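S., here's the first fold you wanted:
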Amino acid sequence: MNADHPRFRSARQLIGQPRDQVPTPALILDIRRVQANLREMASRMASLPAALRPHTKIHKSPALGKMQVEAGAIGLTTATVWEAGAMVDAGLTDILIANQVVGPVKTAELARIAGQATVTAAVDSAVSLTELSEAATRAKSRIDVIVEVSRGRVPAVRPVHRHRGRRRARHMGYHWSKPADHRDPRRILHIQ
């Protein structure tokens, strides 16, 4: 279901109305500020040797996700396979699921959406890699994987290349030894 679904007809009629006319709870955005923030994001990323893949956990909105991609993001990050499915079903084509996807229901959904878009999922064990491989093989899709490496611990997923239904593997990790100085003005992005 997307924003064009007839169920949302009455909600769309509220767009542009005064705030006190909108029933709560409701997400109210100042689209000019959103667009300014997206331009600022793109401007700051332009000089960096990195690409931006924003997380959708704040907005969970395919419409805002599309705006982020149109502003230069290489794709989006989600926390769950269900969030990823909503983004893919809305037409977004490059999603990273930053958590492990385990269990037959979730891996089947991941394999389904991987047949429609480039979807990368984190793995941290040979068991989860095997689950994803089997689900992708059944669905005749390909799932990209990213091996989550904890500092000082490498998971037992070394034979990644032997799994069917996997397109490519990369590594992801978190380094917590030196926290960033939150007072450093170069590290602060002011959102209006």
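And the second, which I think is the more interesting of the pair:
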Amino acid sequence: MKIWTFQSTEVYQKLLEQDIYYCNIDKSELCQEFKSFKTAYNWMRTQMYKRLSGINTNTWPIWCWYKWNNKHKKPDLRYAEFKYREADEYLIELEVPDDQVLLSDFDNWHFVLNGIDNEDWQEIFNVDESVYIQACIPEIKSSWILSCKYCPAHPET
């Protein structure tokens, strides 16, 4: 499955040096700043373990894009959501085995992220009608990389 992920220069360098990268949750600024984020990420980690094959329970999700604005193509860097970056990043195009990808509705993910109405959280995995679909993967293997695009910092002015 073709998906795209934005990663820091540090992660990109690790991928050049190693064959595999795993998310280090302690380096996630949002998870450190907002307790609800770490709780939501942990919930997604549990879902990955339940729904994907061969996932280690210590693996944290790596966020990617599958579909943006109802199109399965790389994120358009002209959109404000991708245009403004505080730090340099790389947009990495990946080809990942289907059984290693958990798709979910990006908009509905915010119910999980903000701890709202947890009875319906499983609904985020119904993506047939979704306009924005995110993909969570347990790791990035260098053999999965199809292309990389350097995206220099571009703070909002």
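Why I say that: The helical segments are 9-17, 29-33, 35-51, 80-83, 106-113. The first helix runs from residue 9 to 17.

Talk tomorrow,
H.
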